[in-house]
Design brief:
295 residues, alpha+beta, Diaminopimelate Epimerase, Chain A, domain 1, 2 domains, 17-stranded mixed beta sheet, Proline racemase, Pro_racemase_fam, 4-hydroxyproline epimerase activity
């Protein structure tokens, strides 16, 4: 075996959504994180394929490159990417990043519990609560979501700062035993929408505790309840008269995200878990060096 390149990664899941975090990429120093993000998908196309695609990765895996911040107020910078290329920001990815930095000792624990991560969408402030060197809670403020009812169809459009989701009532109970029927339902709903929509959400129940399934633009089922999905569903169902509200979104396999709303705004609570620390190698004679995907 001839080793051309070696990459060290840390895998973390947030409510079931998996992220592969890379610390040791030799990234060029640019004038801004945004400028680096423009170069990243092109200059690191091989690395993205190697680390996310099979046989080392899989279709549902997203990646993140963590690097020193450009902005003085930030603790670290993060570039998120998936199989489609660069992602603007991933809220669940932010949870993964802060969990990784604190639990591996790359970021000093603060008594204030306040930390900041720089992204190309701006600086994201998070509250991370530790107990015996383990991150047990991560809180993050969520921007307001605007919901547009569609009077001529059976769905609403939820618009956030960087995403657009179509919300459908599911006429099938969201449970694992009905996954094939739900997958077909999601695909059928996708044919009704245009490219401006980033995902489709099937919703089971209209109470303060719902179950959802989110289909990404490429047809993949999101493994977690989804931060964006939770914020969108809360905006759709929230009670205007209640000043304090607790909203729970549950995935098809039982993972949950909690949204707390008060006069001070809306915050989402989650937690990340390190699942592995790995070293990947690139053998130039490997015929599958570019990887492949089976969806």
């Amino acid at each position: 075996m001839k080793l051309n390149k070696i990459y060290s990664t840390i895998d973390i899941h947030v409510a079931g959504e998996a992220f592969r975090i890379i610390h040791d990429l030799s990234l060029p120093r640019t004038n801004s994180l945004y400028q680096l993000s423009e170069q990243f998908p092109i200059k690191f196309e091989k690395e993205i394929s190697l680390l996310l695609k099979e046989p080392r990765g899989y279709a549902g895996l997203s990646g993140c490159a963590v690097l020193p911040p450009y902005h003085q107020q930030a603790d670290a910078a993060a570039l998120f990417f998936n199989h489609e290329g660069e992602m603007t920001v991933s809220y669940s990815g932010i949870v993964a990043v802060i969990t990784c930095l604190l639990e591996t000792g790359k970021l000093e624990v603060r008594s204030s519990q306040q930390y900041t991560i720089e992204t190309i969408a701006g600086i994201i402030q998070v509250t991370a609560i530790l107990e015996e060197d383990e991150v047990i809670e991560v809180w993050m403020a969520m921007d307001d979501v605007h919901v547009i009812p569609n009077q001529q169809a059976d769905y609403s459009i939820a618009e956030g700062n960087s995403y657009r989701l179509a919300l459908f009532d599911s006429n099938i109970t969201i449970e694992l035993e009905k996954l094939p029927q739900l997958s077909n339902l999601g695909k059928s709903k996708a044919t009704l929408l245009d490219d401006r929509v980033d995902g489709i959400v099937l919703i089971d129940s209209k109470s303060s505790h719902i179950k959802t399934m989110t289909f990404n633009k490429d047809g993949q089922i999101l493994r977690s309840p989804g931060f964006e999905t939770t914020a969108a569903c809360f905006a759709n169902f929230k009670k205007e008269s209640a000043s304090e509200q607790l909203f729970i979104n549950e995935s098809i396999f039982g993972s949950r995200l909690q949204m707390h709303h008060s006069d001070k705004g809306s915050r989402l609570k989650s937690r990340g878990f390190i699942t592995s620390m790995q070293t990947f190698v690139l053998d130039p004679t490997d015929p599958l060096a570019k990887g492949f995907l089976i969806k």
